Amino acid sequence: YRRLHTKETRLSQFNQTEIKAMLASYTKVLFVRDPFHRLIATFLQGMGISPSFSSFVQEVLDSGVHNSSVAWKPLVSLCWPCLIQYDYVVMFGFLRQELGHLLRRAGLPAGSLLPELTDSQVQWTYRWLSEQMFSELSAQQKKQLSRFYRWDLAAFPFSSSFLSD
Description:
Helix content is 53%, strand content 5%.
């Protein structure tokens, strides 16, 4: 299917038979990240024009799932994990461990290809940031965010997410 694949081609442009054949010919890897961490990263990168995290979250909630930016859109609406059989799901925060395993399974030398990743520092930093940012939100915003990302929270093991409560 290389001749059909271009930078602009979307999977939805093919019929079911072609989609099935293409997906079977690839190793499918899905990288997932706690939705609350994605919101924090998006806010810190200045992708929202809001002066505070709370007002940024309100913009996200007001946009709705269908009109939201790819930066904070629920993962299940982007990658369709219920329809596509992914070979690997790699969790942000465990990249070094999981990428090493993935590279070894692909027959590649894992140690030399991986950047220096400090997963424990990343996890600690996001835990601290999450606590700070979550405390800025109203009880209603917390509840609405949990509902906004309910399918992500159900599909992936984000057990330590602030939105799981």
